[in-house]
Write a structure and sequence with these properties.
Elements (H helix, E strand, L loop, with lengths): L5 H8 L7 H19 L27 H15 L4 H15 L9
Helix pairs in contact: 2-3, 3-4
């Protein structure tokens, strides 16, 4: 099950109604998994509600997913669901990686 609400994705895709909900949900699930693999994380990154003034060292699961990560996942959904050419897919994926990169873990030296 996705962390990101299906309605957010449908709004970005400009989809009205629920005819393609299963396909969109599958693209969303895959995009979230791809983002987590790219980030070397088990879940999408979150920030405390009162960030940046928070003193919390490790965000909890109840904190919202950071907006950049949501944007990155939405770009991956667009690559999977909407892109018509390999070049378009690659463009969406590069844009997604740009949004996600600051949250990567264990990237080495």
């Amino acid at each position: 099950m996705s962390v990101i609400n299906l309605e957010i994705v449908k709004r970005r895709l400009r989809v009205i109604g629920d005819f393609n909900d299963e396909d969109i949900q599958q693209a969303l699930d895959g995009a979230e998994q791809e983002a987590c693999r790219f980030l070397n994380r088990t879940q999408l990154p979150t920030l405390p509600q009162d960030w940046p003034s928070s003193t919390e060292d490790v965000p909890s699961d109840s904190d919202p997913v950071v907006a950049d990560a949501i944007e990155g996942v939405l770009l991956l959904v667009l690559a999977s669901y909407n892109a018509a050419t390999p070049e378009e897919v690659a463009g969406y994926r590069r844009a997604a990686e740009t949004k996600l990169y600051p949250y990567r873990l264990c990237i080495g030296v």
